[in-house]
Write a sequence for this structure.
């Protein structure tokens, strides 16, 4: 049974949201990744939300562009946390989707993450953190992932320090820039 639902407003959002699925896979989180539109298929959106909630889905992630009402439409139909990923690409460069997703009326929150792939990734991390509230094994996996992020920064710092701030080959006597 999927723990997370990932709804895309259109199949054209797939490339933006693929990193979300990759992170959920890496963390071993079950999910359903599908298309449903707030406007083009409101009945499907409602039915999927209710069906997935009944199956035990704990977090909904909704990605949409333009007048991005998908996350809000889902939030209106479930008490589970809803994470919205605004998708750019239309005439207003994503500001339309950002404002449509984030400006929910009080009582119907959508946790809105960054635009596009950065938001897709953080939607997965945030969903994992929500699930980890009641899953110590997943919390441990997330602590390990944080340690890996820290190690990658430490490694990058050492590599840059090794390349800068000391004489480089082109600075040897006789060389000019
Ligand atoms: C939104 O409109 C979708 O989420 C997509 O980002 C955008 C364009 O959809 P398509 O016309 O490519 O299907 O509903």
């Amino acid at each position: 049974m999927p723990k997370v639902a990932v709804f895309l407003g259109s199949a054209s959002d797939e490339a933006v949201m693929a990193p979300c699925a990759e992170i959920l896979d890496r963390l071993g989180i079950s999910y359903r990744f599908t298309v449903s539109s707030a406007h083009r298929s409101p009945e499907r959106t409602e039915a999927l939300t209710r069906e997935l909630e009944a199956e035990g889905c704990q977090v909904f992630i909704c990605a949409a562009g333009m007048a991005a009402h998908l996350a809000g439409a889902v939030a209106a139909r479930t008490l589970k946390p809803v994470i919205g990923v605004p998708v750019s690409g239309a005439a207003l460069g994503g500001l339309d989707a950002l404002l449509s997703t984030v400006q929910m009326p009080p009582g119907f929150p959508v946790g809105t993450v960054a635009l596009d792939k950065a938001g897709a990734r953080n939607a997965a991390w945030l969903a994992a953190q929500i699930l980890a509230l009641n899953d110590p094994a997943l919390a441990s996996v997330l602590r390990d992932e944080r340690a890996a992020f820290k190690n990658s920064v430490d490694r990058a710092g050492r590599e840059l320090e090794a390349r800068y701030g000391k004489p480089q080959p082109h600075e040897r006597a006789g060389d000019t820039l």
